[in-house]
Design brief:
- By secondary structure, the protein is mainly beta.
- The chain has one domain: Alpha-D-Glucose-1,6-Bisphosphate, Chain A, domain 4, CATH 3.30.530.
- It contains three helices and seven strands.
- Strands 1-7-6-5-4-3-2 form a seven-stranded antiparallel beta sheet, with helices on both faces.
- Strand 6 and strand 7 form a beta hairpin.
- It is globular.
- The two termini are 26 Å apart.
- The mean pLDDT is 82.
């Protein structure tokens, strides 16, 4: 039997954080929303407590804004320290999952390279959305 994204990443990358939430909407509706970089990165695009008053701007580097190979560059700062990193989508299954990782030489305050992703599972009440952060 094939491994789920969560199972694969848990085995291949032992340092990870996972959080699931059940949403009362179809997998197609949830995917359409979370597959948009401005929705998954919204917390970085505005000044907030998690950003310690800083904020980031996103630049689309690829022709495609979604799907395999979509690439983005985030620039900005937190507490007067510059942040500059790029990401690319390395796994994308329409309606089911997306995984992206840093590329190049990320200039991030707390961590270096990372991989993030989400997967969707249909449930009787709608969709279970699972986010993963892999270091």
């Amino acid at each position: 039997m094939a491994q789920t994204l969560t199972e694969h990443l848990a085995i291949s990358k032992p340092w990870h954080f996972e959080k699931s939430i059940d949403i009362h909407a179809s997998p197609a509706e949830v995917f359409a929303y979370v597959d948009d970089i401005h929705h998954t990165g919204f917390h970085m695009e505005k000044s907030s407590m998690p950003m310690m008053g800083g904020k980031m701007q996103v630049e689309i580097l690829s022709r495609n804004t979604r799907g395999l190979g979509a690439s983005y560059r985030w620039t900005g700062g937190v507490l007067g320290m510059p942040i500059d990193f790029s990401e690319t989508v390395v796994n994308w299954v329409k309606g089911k999952e997306r995984v992206w990782r840093t590329i190049g030489d990320p200039k991030i305050i707390i961590m270096g390279h990372y991989e993030m992703g989400f997967s969707l599972t249909p449930i009787p009440s709608g969709t279970r959305l699972t986010f993963l952060h892999i270091l």
